[in-house]
């Protein structure tokens, strides 16, 4: 469990460095959730975020 905050910091720092993607962290999390949960409802997505 201690590695999760470290990984999230790494992902955030990497996303800030890659301005070409123009995705915010919440947008990235949304896309990742939808990729892992095809057909998820808006309620499921909002509960995840």
From TrEMBL:
Task: Report which superkingdom the organism of origin falls in.
Answer: Bacteria
Entry-linked InterPro entries: WH-like_DNA-bd_sf (IPR036388)
> What is the protein named?
MarR family transcriptional regulator
